[in-house]
Amino acid sequence: MSDIINISRRGLLKTGALLGGGLILGISLPLRVPPSEAVPPAPPLEPNAFIRIGTDNTVTIIVNHSEMGQGVYTSLPMLVAEELEADWTKIRVEPAPVDPAYNHTAFGMQMTGGSTSVWSEYNRLRNVGAAAREMLIAAAAAAWNVDRASCRAENGKVIHRSGTSLTYGQLADKAAALPVPKDIKLKDPSKYTIIGKPMRRLDTPGKVNGKAVFGMDVYIPDMLTAVIARPPVFGAKVVSIKADRARAVPGVKEVVQVPAGVAVIATGFWPAKKGRDALEIVWDKGPNAQLSTAGMREQYANLAKTAGVVTRKEGDPDQALAKAATHISAEYEVPYLAHAPMEPLNCVVDLRTDRCEIWAGTQFQTIDRDAAARVAGLKPEQVKLHTTLLGGGFGRRANPQSDFVVEAVQVAKAAGRPVKVIWTREDDIKGGYYRPMWFDRISAGLDADGNPVAWRHTIVGQSILAGTPFEKVLVKDGVDESSVEGAKDIPYAIPNILVDLHSPKIGVPVLWWRSVGHSHTAFVVESFLDEVAHAARKDPYAFRRKLLDRHPRHRGVLELAAQKAGWGKPLPHGRAHGIAVHESFGSFIAQVAEASVSPEGTVRVHKVVCAVDCGKVVNPDIIAAQMESGIVFGLSAALHGAITLKNGKVEQSNFNDYEVLRINEMPEVEVHIVQSNEKPGGIGEPGVPPIAPAVANAVFAATGARIRQLPMTAERVREALKNI
Amino acid sequence: MITLEINGKRHEVEVDPNMPLLWVLRDHLGLTGTKYGCGEGLCGACTVHIDGDAVPSCQVPAKDAAGKRITTIEGISEHHPVKQAWIAEDVPQCGYCHLGQIMQAVAFLKENPHPDDADIDNAMGGHICRCGTYQRIRRAIHTASKTAAKGGRK
């Protein structure tokens, strides 16, 4: 259990925020950093506030996770407000500064990722809220000179049984002088009025009136804007620069070479971009000049025929396959994918000799702050990082290399003035840090009764974590867990299983992309399982259900989705259902997609029924929104997304050739949430993995064509239709 | 010097006449509600109204906007049925695209006050939302249409 401390009492934070008094409640917790990681220990009682109660009754919740659409600026305050018995209309949100006290409770650094925010904070923030509530009650009891048992907290007030009441604002100063109670009793969940309810998002009004501030919207005095000419091929180096024409663009102030390329610094985005486009740069294309998707595909396919590092082995799959009555095998492929958040990457840096201030929509506060300090030649405590709203993250703003922050510090260093570096959309699409391209070879054997007896799955693709600071902790015995998640842990009852992995080193930067390894493994596993069901002449839903006997949560969502979708009932002509179930990030999701295929091969998804078991529910409307969101994100990839390379160059550049789902392709989405008392699971990512296989399975059911390669473009579907 | 009439106010700006209106609004006039998303008129995040029509401001050189009536998200009343509907349906997630989506919806509902889903998809097809709020956008546009029909402020 961590310690909760009363910051206002210790008089440590005499900042503007505190003028006028009030109660600030902080929490200090022991750092939980793996011993191998060189993070300096924090002072034991560094003050960090999660709650600030003003004399005007506002309750400000300082949120330590980044808001990128997934709703943490609402769901996390709900945890505090519930225990605090706060008036929801008085809740305000403030992003946390970088400080060890705001570290993720499991990962030992301040970050947002892995769909972990709610479970990271579930206990901590409820405790913080409850402690403040007890202090406010004690303050009221003291003021009235009554037994505290005769007082209760409700909707932002402490009420005595006589009916007298004081608001939290009136009590804040008095409560600030009290010690934090040692034994805090949390509410009985049956009394919850906020947790589990569809509370409205606190960030909506600002996102509708234009006042919400994203990184892109940060303007500071004296600031210039930079656009960087980036290498045309990953790893290419500048040989020479001719910048006369760039410098001649009115508004261009400077052209500087930085490790990321050549930065044009100007009075605004437009002159910077015009200047960038006028640069004449000779590049040494380096070792990746011949890289092509076609070549990689061949390399991966060959690798897939050889044995990789074994990540799971049960029984004797080879022998079981040899003996099986029926044997089926297939190859699956998925391409590189860009995250393409709507807000292109950007970062504002104000670098001075003894300090540095940064504004960034980042998912990786501690890592970015420390990287900036190293580049700036400052101590981490001299760097102040402000987290803005993120115009989408999807993993791209959680880069162990801190690419978009580090380069902005380097440009600011060269500029000698505050700078905002902006990535163009083309920079974003071409700039790498993609979801890896994957190639899978998979086989299964069935006995004479159609029961699967063997499963053999070989995975080929780049490791995301190799070469990053996470490698030491998360790559074990040559296996990057994120490469095999969702494949090595398949829940189906199959006695002989082998899952092995090849992790070729390729010069294309890769990164976690919403749902990470699951974005690929669910497609392969759930599509191939459908193939196995078909080979066994069984209904794909019934086949799964039987094999999930020992996995009640998988089975629960599978049954719920099938039932709500009317599995097995007739559909309009040409349409068919496909089903998939997948566990990721502690949550269980099943989806039934209803799809049809046009004679030209265009796949149309009409409806998706989604069942989700994410344990205890904090905000059902945000859960529904995240399921809708994950389905759209997954559909973009399933139907359109592909980054390809030719002669080392990325072939896509913007939303014309890196297409994403638009409203005209949006299926009707229906979300059903399982009531559960299990530990809260993730919600931002788990909606993504099942959709691609659910749609591919529906395409098979509708046409008999099996899609084994994403995206399922019309051309590819036509090809598959020919091969029936 | 270019004179622009934005949200009913005249602004004189000294900029490259070919600078897209988007960057004049953001970098020179502090109207940051209009967002940069793609720079090619492919995503709709930068949508504003010019003489009542919804257009991507990244595709409009400043000189072409001179003398026209420009409205940005900041110029749409907080009580407008579309803004109210976006709040009522809790549409935004990351929120970055919605300023443009709202501008499109406002212009579209003026032309077609009672759209069906197909009309909505057709009108909103130029806008990308990576968070995938499309279902709620449809719902919010229907809600706004109903409120406006009941006499909600436009």
Topology:
The complex is a heterodimer of chains A (724) and B (154).
Chain A: E1 3-6, H1 7-10, E2 23-28, E3 49-53, E4 59-63, H2 72-84, E5 91-95, H3 117-144, E6 151-154, E7 157-160, E8 165-167, H4 168-176, H5 204-209, E9 224-229, E10 237-242, H6 244-247, E11 252-258, E12 261-266, H7 269-278, E13 280-284, H8 293-304, E14 309-314, H9 317-323, E15 326-334, E16 346-351, E17 356-360, H10 365-376, E18 383-387, H11 403-415, E19 419-422, H12 425-430, E20 438-446, E21 452-461, H13 471-474, E22 475-476, E23 479-480, H14 481-484, E24 496-502, H15 518-535, H16 540-547, H17 552-565, E25 576-584, E26 587-597, E27 603-613, H18 620-639, E28 645-646, E29 649-650, E30 668-673, H19 691-703, H20 714-722
Parallel strand pairs in A: 4-5, 9-19, 17-18, 21-24, 27-30
Antiparallel strand pairs in A: 1-2, 2-3, 3-4, 6-7, 7-8, 9-12, 10-13, 11-12, 14-24, 15-20, 16-17, 16-19, 20-21, 22-23, 25-26, 26-27, 28-29
Chain B: E1 2-6, E2 9-13, H1 21-28, E3 47-50, E4 53-56, H2 62-65, E5 69-71, H3 81-88, H4 98-111, H5 117-124, H6 134-149
Parallel strand pairs in B: 1-5
Antiparallel strand pairs in B: 1-2, 3-4, 3-5
Helix pairs in contact in B: 3-6
Write up this protein.
The complex is a heterodimer of chains A (724) and B (154). Chain A has 724 residues and is of the alpha+beta class. Helices cover 30% and strands 24% of the residues of chain A. Chain A contains 20 helices and 30 strands. In chain A, the strands form 8 sheets. In chain A, strands 11-12-9-19-16-17-18 form a 7-stranded mixed sheet, with helices on both faces. Chain A has a 5-stranded mixed sheet with strand order 1-2-3-4-5. In chain A, helix 3 crosses helix 4, helix 10 (365-376) packs parallel to helix 11 (403-415) and helix 15 runs parallel beside helix 19. The longest helix of chain A is centred in the N-terminal third of the chain and has 28 residues, at 117-144. Chain A is globular. Chain B is an alpha+beta fold. Chain B has helices at 21-28, 62-65, 81-88, 98-111, 117-124, 134-149, and strands spanning 2-6, 9-13, 47-50, 53-56, 69-71. Chain B has a 5-stranded mixed sheet with strand order 2-1-5-3-4, sandwiched between helices. The longest helix of chain B is centred in the last third of the chain and has 16 residues, at 134-149. Chain B starts with a strand and ends in a 5-residue tail after the last helix. Chains A and B meet through helix 5, helix 7 and helix 18 of A and helix 1, helix 3, helix 4, helix 5 and helix 6 of B.
